[in-house]
Amino acid sequence: MLPADMVGGVSATRAANLEASGEALDAFVKRVDNVLKTLEGSAGNPAKVEAQKIRPTSLTSGAADIFPEAHGLYHQYTRVHDELTKLSRNLHLQIEAIGIAVQGAHVGFDNLEEEQRQRFWAIQAQIGKGQDAADGKQRTGTGTKTEA
After folding, report:
1. 77-111 per-position pLDDT tens digit
2. What's the sign of the alpha-carbon dihedral 19, 22, 23, 25?
């Protein structure tokens, strides 16, 4: 038997503590916005990371069989650079989505401006598409993965 002050398996006191106040959500949104602003001005900005490419001729001007190590280094650098670019872009998108989600938690997702709701879902789709391409798997509507 549940104690009288329990609601849905959680005491009323604990349930009240779980509710997020409007002030706490506003403060969190400001923190997320500040992180996003800092990222945009840093070397981790997706555009800045993308711009840090090198050309194959930066390491060697000969054929691959003349200096194969240089070509191997170039290919590894390019692979790592591409992954860092994707990670930076996804981090940027995730932070933006968190900001929208927190605002939605504060005012209700249906009360957000239509543009914000559309942007949130566009971000989710873009991130999902990138993850699907990266791991070669398809996602179902249940959040589980199945092999392609």
Report:
1. 999 988 888 888 888 899 899 889 888 888 888 88
2. positive
